[in-house]
Legumain prodomain domain-containing protein
Amino acid sequence: MMFWFAAGASFLLALSILAVADGRNLIKLPSEARQFFGLFDDSNGDANDDTVGTKWAVLLAGSTGYWNYRHQADLCHAYQILKRGGLKDENIIIFMYDDIAYNEENPRPGVIINSPHGEDVYKGVPKDYVGDDVTVNNFFAVILGNRTALTGGSRKVVHSGPNDHIFIYYADHGGPGVLGMPTNPYLYANDLVDVLKKKHASGTYKSLVFYLEACESGSIFEGLLPEGLNIYATTASNSEESSWGTYCPGDNPGPPPEYETCLGDLYSVAWMEDSEIHNLQKETLRQQYQLVRRRTANQNSYYGSHVMQYGDLKLSMENLFLYMGTNPANDNHSFVDNNALYLSSKAVNQRDADLLHFWHKFLKAPEGSVRKFEAQKQLANAMAHRTHIDSSIKLVGKLLFGIKKGPEVLKTIRPTGQPIVDDWDCLKSLVRSFETHCGSLSQYGMKHMRSIANICNAGIKQEQMAEASAQACASFPSSSWSSLYRGFSA
């Protein structure tokens, strides 16, 4: 008996060495080795395997306003998937403004749906950090497990250990090098990556997966997230393009007729609807990435984006189960690479989803009603803000570099693999200068972050930016879109 035990152990050790040498995952140790010798029953997943560690999740929706319904709907849906997957509330940390479920615009008070025929995904979602507690500082403190740095909220943090697996999901508006938040300031890419590096240096996780839904979301990691941190990240778009909303008014399939807003985001809905139908003990991160990439590209049509991956790509060979658990109802469902989830309809550019909401609200409101007037005013304010921001940035560029060279500088795109800016402190200072004189960039104006980064890269100092911004903006619209409370300034 001892002979066969020793021989079997030697055989498995040899296989593991060959697997490492060949760069392929031929056999998973130690769990499969332990199964081979009947040392535990795998029917309970990782319940008896101390090497798997605890699953942690941080979910953040960074927007406010009913026109951004989809971000909180995405987050709530993600929570339900993780909860059915076996994660405990004590290990799931939620950030959302929580102004959607009981918003006066919501046709089903207290209910949030993420697809046309979807169930309520809001029920049971923990209220860890809501309202003005959804801040960059709290988000970072939670990731680092630093309770002393928290302000408000449930005070839950990722109190992880060296064998634990962490899943972070973020959904909101974004721009080159920046992510939106419902509070001031917004989140810059270099600060996020610095926090991830600190988390790795603390030795308090085994691996970390980051799913990011935002416009130009590839710019958050490109040229910034190094290999060797045991972090695998996927993004809804590359560093130069928008991400897309889905299940929107006028779409097919669209939301129920009483809804005047998009229910979800294309990338987010893709990974979640995939997760709902498969046994995640058998599906790998790479398999989901490939499926989500094809669906989000939307058959290479105009209405889609390029899903990207960054960091330690070898982690993509791991099963989703390590991060999301798995719904026991899907135990008999194997991964199917070719399914109906690839099919999608016309999506809506994330940056235009607010206009779509205001327009449909206007169309459906009774003639002469207060609601119709309100929708018309909201649409006019949003358009005025866009026009002001676009023209102000263009004029600043011309004032700094001249009429011919200005547009060229603003439109420059750096080679693939480089971050958008070399000096992030410069970028932040120039944004502060612009917003001081021209008002908030806001969720729409994030698209111009690359232009301001290019101004930095060209050597312009804060004093020069302030002078040009003051000349370009004698005044700015007084609507909520331009309020500095909605801006990037610290």
About this structure: The chain has three domains: 2-39, 55-350, 365-486. The radius of gyration is 24 Å.
